[in-house]
Amino acid sequence: MRRSQCRSFQITFILGLCLFVWFFVSYKWFKNSPYYKISESQFDPSISKVLSSLNSWNLRTRQDLPNQSQEAAKLKSRDNLYKNVVFERLNDIPEVKEGVLEFIQRSEQHVLVKNETGSYFIEKYGNYSSLCTDLHSDIQDLFCMTKLPYLEDVKNPCWYELGCDGKLDCDQTLRLRCLPYYHILGCAKCATTDVYNRLIQHPQIFSNNGILHKEALWWSWYKYGITNWNIKRIQTFEEYTSRFDNTAEHIQTLIQDGSKLVRKIITGDASPPDFWDFRAWPLLAQNKGPEPTILTPHIMKYIYRKPKFILILRNPTDRLYSDYYFSGYGDNPYSFHQDIVNSIWTIENCLMNHTVQHCFYSADIFAKLKSRIHFGCYVVYLKEWLKMFDRDQFYIVRTEDYADDVDKYIAEIFDFLEVDPLSDSKLHKIEMKKKQRITKSKQKADPMLPKTHKILDKFYEKYNKELSEVLKDKKYMWSDINTINKWKLSDLNKLKIKE
Fold first, then answer.
1. Where would one find the signal peptide in this protein (predicted)?
2. Does residue 424 share a domain with residue 293?
3. I need a surface site. Which of 44, 153, 203, 444 has the fewest CB within 10 A?
C-alpha cells in the first residue's frame, strides 16, 4: 500500500514537473515570438511610435502569418508594422521622459520639439510609399519605411529615433541619426579618393566611419550582401546610418549647446559603385519583369530630402587601363589587349539581342567580362540618375580638368556644398596635399598598346558623344585628350614596341 502511494506520488511529481517545463518553454517561445512583440507594441506608449520607424524592422519575419495567403499576410503585416509607428492624431503623442526632449506644441502639420537651448521641427510622418511590396525579405524594402522626420534647422539630413534599437525594456532616450548630405558617386580611378580627402580638410565637412573613412559601399553592395565578386553578409539600413554616427554625435552636441553650426556641419559618402553597379536589381521586390523599373536612384529619391551628388569623370579609355591593374584583372598591356577584345565581344554580342540596360546591369554579363569596361559608358548610368534628380543637384567635373587646377575645382565644390569659403592660403594648403590612392602597379606598367587604345576609343565614341549631348558640353567627348594620346601613340610606334 505504501509502495503504491509512493509510486503514485512519484508519477504525479514527474508529470507536474514535465507540465511546468512545458509551460515555461512555451512562455519563453511566445515571449520571443513576433505575435507577442506585435501585440505588446500595440500598447507600448513609448516615443518610439513617433520617432523610430526603423526600430520596427524586427517585426519583419516570415513566421508572422504562416497560414494566410501571401497578399493577406502582406497587408496585415504592413498594418501591424506601420500603424504602430504613425499616429493618426498628433494629440495622441505621449510626452517624452524628462531630461531628453519635451514636446511643447502640436499641430496638424508638425510637432515642435524643444530642449534647453533651441527648438527643432519634426515633420509629421507621412504614409509609406505605394511602392511598398515586400516586408518579408532579408533585404529591406525601404519603400515600406515611412518618411524620415528630418530636423529642419539642421543642414545635414538627421532625425531623432529611439536610442535602444526598439527594445521595450530599455531606457527610452532619443538618439540622433544621420545620412550623408552629399555623395561622391564616382567613378573608380577618376580621383574620387583624392577629391574626398581634400574636401574633408574643410572644418565643416566630416568624414564617415566606412572604408578609408570614405566608402560605406551600402547602396549597391552591402544592402544586397555582395561586393565586386564576392558574397557578403547583408547589412541593414541601421548599419548604414551607423557609418555617420561620428557626425551625428557632433551635431547632437551642437544642438545641446545651441550652436548655429548645426546649419553648417555636413558629412558625405564616397562609394563609387553606387553610380553604376545595378546588378542586384532582381533582388528588389518591385522589379517583376525582365528589366528593372526600380534602381538605386529611385530608392534614394524616396529616402532623402534633397541630396547633392559629385561626379568625377575621366577619359574612359585611360580610366579602364588604370582600373584593370587596380582590380587585379591583369598586369601587362598584352593581357589587357586580349581581355578588352573579349569584353567588347561579350557586350556587343549581348546588345545584338537585348537592350543596353539589360546588358550593362546584368550580373551574368558582369561575371563574363574580363574588365570593368561597361561603366566607362557613363551616360547609360547618368541618365538613370537624372530621371530622379534635378541637374542642379549634380556637380560634374572631368578628372583631367581637376588635375590641372585642384584648388579651383575644390573651391567650386565647396560652393556647391554651400559650406563657408576658405582663404586662398588654406585652399593652397589643401592643394599641396599628396595625391591619394594612386595605383602603384599601373605606375610601373608599360603603356597601353596603340591598337588597344584605338579599339577602346572606337568603343566609347558613341557613349561619349551622347554624354556630351546630355551635359551640353563637347569636352565630354574627350577629343582634346584623345589628340594628346594620339601623339603619344605615334611616339610609341616609332619605338616599334613588340606586340
1. none
2. yes
3. 444
